[in-house]
Specification:
With 313 residues, the protein is an alpha/beta fold. The chain is built from ten helices and 13 strands. Helices cover 33% and strands 26% of the residues. Strands 5-4-1-8-9-10-11-12-13 form a nine-stranded mixed beta sheet, sandwiched between helices. A four-stranded mixed beta sheet has the order 3-2-6-7.
């Protein structure tokens, strides 16, 4: 018997989010913002917290510092219902932090990686691979150790009967030095956005990128912002699904991670990929109704109520 529906493996940091900023930052000058939030950050943590709020049994495996930001990360995950038994506290490194400058539906981030960059396969408790039904990994370009060990980690997961998913997220170095041909056969659900997919495959259009990954992929969902999402199935079929639009966006931080949480919370229940996609579109939209990546996810009932208000049925 598996203890957890989902094991989230990856980066951990706090987010300092600045909203309602008086213009773009300029070197040598100072700007005001009207709102500030210090909260649980990182794509993987936002995903884990929101998947737990939607009813999945979730545990987190990652590395944080033995500091006050680490305390905030751990307590925040626990308050969201995420099991933290696989967290590693490391006194040699500080917990990572991201400064998020939020501008309506977009943002500019500056991140200090800290402990997350040193986390690698040898740190992972082997019980992770036997305790979970599904392994989700995100932001591998933010984590040198995990990126270097990604193939070995995925093979271990598959050997223990886990299904897998990956959201690469953006590569801050913009090198995109990841062999998708080797990686994708080990991924059950690939979850990039359209820009990330094009960069990863060296393509000018999404259509070109899709043709490049098709021979190697199982299933994929391309997140396409306010255009919705594109589902690509292993059998060659595809479906473009329009978004549920929130006309009063607070911020879009974590919207893609919230899509992942909705999609995968249904995926681990055995729902159809089409239903998973629709639920993901809804949870991604609900995310934008509150500040920060987890603010809108208080419970499954509340999320679905907000989803109905946005047109989800």
């Amino acid at each position: 018997m598996k203890t957890f529906d989902i094991i989230a493996l990856g980066e951990l940091n706090v987010d300092l989010i600045l909203n309602r900023i008086d213009g773009a930052p300029e070197v040598g000058k100072e700007k005001f913002c009207q709102d500030m939030i210090l909260t649980l950050g990182s794509s993987t943590a936002i995903f884990a917290a929101n998947a737990a709020a939607l009813g999945s049994k979730v545990a987190f495996c990652g590395m944080i510092g033995d500091d006050s930001f680490g305390d905030l990360v751990e307590s925040s995950l626990q308050k969201k219902g995420v099991d933290t038994r696989y967290l590693i506290r490391q006194s040699k490194y500080a917990t990572g932090a991201t400064i998020c400058l939020s501008y309506n539906e977009d943002r500019a981030n500056v991140t200090y990686q800290g402990a997350m960059d040193f986390f690698c396969a040898r740190d992972i408790n082997k019980g992770v691979f036997t305790a979970g039904k599904h392994l989700h990994i995100s932001s591998i370009f933010m984590q040198t150790g995990i990126r270097n060990d990604i193939i070995a980690i995925l093979k271990e997961a598959k050997a223990n009967g886990m299904t897998t998913s990956l959201d690469t997220q953006w590569d801050p170095s913009e090198k995109w030095d990841l062999d998708y041909r080797e990686l994708l056969p080990l991924i059950d659900v690939f979850l990039p956005n359209e820009k990330e997919l094009c960069c990863l495959t060296g393509s000018k259009t999404v259509e070109e990128a899709v043709e490049k990954i098709r021979p190697y992929m199982n299933n994929a969902v391309i997140k396409w912002g306010n255009k919705g999402s594109l589902l690509l199935k292993k059998d060659g079929s595809e479906r473009m699904l329009k978004p549920y639009l929130n006309t009063h966006v607070v911020d879009a931080i974590g919207a893609g991670d919230s899509f992942n949480s909705g999609f995968l919370s249904r995926f681990v229940q055995g729902d159809s990929l089409e239903d998973c996609q629709q639920y993901g579109n809804m949870t991604g939209a609900v995310n934008t109704t509150a500040a920060g990546g987890t603010g809108a996810f208080t419970s499954r009932e509340d999320v679905e109520k907000k989803g109905h208000e946005l047109g989800w049925k």
